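User: I'm new to structure prediction. If I give you an amino acid sequence, what do you actually give back? Let's try with this one:
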Amino acid sequence: QVSVGPYFTVIFDNSGSMTSSTGPGTNSCGLPRDRMSDAKCVLQDVVNGYGEATFALERFRHSCSGSCSSSTCASTCGCSCSLTCNDTANAGEVLVPIAAGNQSDVLEWVDYQCSSCSSVSPGAQPELHASGNTPLAGALRAARQYYQGLDSRFPTSPIATDSFSGCRPYYVILLTDGAETCSGNPSTAAMELRNTNVGGTLYDIRTFVIGFGITPGDSNTEAIAAAGGTDAPGTHRAFYASDETSLALAFSQIMADSILYETCNGVDDDCDMAVDEGF
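Assistant: Good question. You get back a string of structure tokens that encode the predicted 3D arrangement of the chain. For your 279 residues, that looks like this:
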């Protein structure tokens, strides 16, 4: 038997508003508390703590120059960055593809250490930087393009090469602190993900939405979650967070809803080629 976990593409909002404070003092990573720093700290724990899942990392497309700060940094690290602002897939940028054992490649983007403002290559010690607008629709379309194998940097679809594509769940986690600001319709883009054509087969890729610093029940955020086919516990469709603790809770709830478990129902629920094992 094998253990088959879900695939997630995490879209990390790296817009300028992510520098907003989440409170006084420092977070559990020892950095001043702002949305960017808290989100990096939580993503470290998620990638290290949920071995059942495999993650890809995406940001809003940035073009950065300058020299990184040599000290520990959280939000801009001394780099000067401009962001692509439109509603096409070009507005998103997959940084780390889905692959077994890719945790270190994801973590070097969120470890508060930066050696290069411009490099996106593994081992070059890049870092996520906050600046610019919020192209939510474009970022969602970039995730769909990646899953289809149409990304110019990663032209192999993680679905097309997956021997468990018939039962493995594929998801997007959209972590954002604001509404669309690049003339796109993110709800439409989330609906497009639910009909993703790979090799002539349609896949229902659902989108979890975490509104970070957004008032719970926000209509725009709720609409994306509804279009993406996900529903958080409680009265809202999206997940909401205001600091590191509540953001970690949102991720843990998403993970709990997504991990495959076998139940006694005559079906291979956990995708391991065995039915009702353990019952």
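You can read the tokens as a compact description of the fold. Here is one thing that stands out. The two ends are 15 Å apart (CA to CA).
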